[in-house]
Amino acid sequence: MKARGPLLTLLLAGAFGLCVGPFHWLAMAATQDDKDVFSWPPKLLPGGHLMENLQGLQESIGLTRVLLNSVLVAGVQTVGAVVVSVLAGYAFAKFDFRGRDLFFVLLLSTLVIPDTVMLIPIFRMMTELGLIDTYQSVILPGLVTPFGIFLMRQALRSMPDELLDAARVDGAGELRVLWRIVIPVNRPIIAALALFVFLGGWNQFVWPLIALRSPEMYTLPVATATLQGLSTTNYAQVLLAGAIAAVPVMALFLVLQRQFISGLLAGATKE
Question: Residue 148's pLDDT is what?
Answer without folding.
Answer: 92
